[in-house]
Amino acid sequence: MKCHGKRPMALFLALALVVSLCLGCGTNGDDERVTITIGYMTDYTGSAASAVASINYGVLDATRYYSEEGLVSGARLKLESWDARMDTSKTIPGYEWLRDRGAELILSLITQDGVLLKPVADRDKFPIFSMTTNEQITEPPGWEFCFSNRADQVMATLLKWVSEKHWDYGKGVPKIGFVGWNDPSAVEVEKGMSGYCQAHPGEFDYVHGYLPPVGTVMYSAEVEGLKDCDYVCAYAISGADFIKQYTAKGYETTYLDPATDMSIAGYVLARAGWEAVDGMLTAASSLTWSEPYPVVDFARLLLDTYRPGEADAIVDEGTGYVSGGVVPMVFMLSILQKAVEQVGAENLNSQAIYDAAVEYRVSGTTLEGFPQWGFSQTKRYLYDDLQVFEWDAAGKEFVMVQDWIPLVTEW
Question: Which CATH superfamily is domain 12-149+289-384 in?
Answer without folding.
Answer: Response regulator (3.40.50.2300)
